[in-house]
Amino acid sequence: MALSQWSVDPTHSSIDFSVKHMMIAKVKGTFHTFEAQIEADPEDLTSASIRFSIDLSSIDTRNADRDAHLRSADFFDVEANPKMTFEATRITKSGDGEYEVTGDFTLHGITRPEKFAVSFEGAGKDPWGNAKAGFSAVGSLKRSDYGLTYNAVLETGGVLIGDEVKISIEIEALQQV
Predict the structure, then answer these.
(1) Mean pLDDT over all residues of the chain?
(2) Which of 64, 98, 150, 175 is least enclosed, having the fewest CB within 10 Å?
(3) Cβ-contact 83, 108 below 8 angstroms
């Protein structure tokens, strides 16, 4: 395949995360609103151009009070920093259909390099003749690297909220004609 433009099918895609809570469990959440600009040959991502933008106000951890707190100045401060973004700067093949994608990740006004393991899941045509491609990605980051340091010390030792945030992305992309 040649390089072509792809858009994210939001009804068949997700951006999810998990973080340790009280050092004993994980809280999971998702972002419902995001978009991407992708120019790629899905069978060889090494020359792809990939940019993501996530609307932080779309966070959903299945708890309205927690979500409101995450949107506040204690965490994302969505009034001042409404988006989280990622732009790929280097893509290397790590195996058959497997890639290491490094890029500039911006959160809370801070940009740092982050790395994701990306898998090409396959391509095909949907029942209406549209070309689709699937990708999975996983990675992690430290929230403290982005100035997200709100926490509480537990009387039993440790902290309320873990520093590492694990990210899982599932994308079904539609080829633009």
Answers:
(1) 94
(2) 64
(3) no
Amino acid at 164: E
The percentage of residues in the chain with a pLDDT greater than 70, rounded to a whole number, is: 99
- The arithmetic mean of pLDDT across residues 37-53, rounded, is 91
Which structure tokens are listed for 90?
């280097």
Structure tokens at 175: 């080829």
- How far the first Cα of the chain sits from its last, in Å, is 14
pTM of this structure? 0.91
What one-character-per-residue DSSP string does 123-159 give?
Answer: EEE-TTS-EEEEEEEEEEEEGGGGT-----B-TTSSB
Distance between CA atoms of residues 31 and 59, nearest Å: 5
Position 1 confidence tier, pLDDT thresholds 50, 70, 90:
low
Neighbours of 63 (CB within 10 A): 12
The tokens describing 152, both together, are: 């509480």
The rounded distance, in Å, linking the Cα atoms of 39 and 114 is: 20
User: Which pair of structure tokens corresponds to residue 76?
Assistant: 């994302």
In three-state secondary structure terms, 149 is: coil
Structure tokens at 71: 């949107």
Say how far apart CA 97 and CA 94 lie, in whole Å: 8
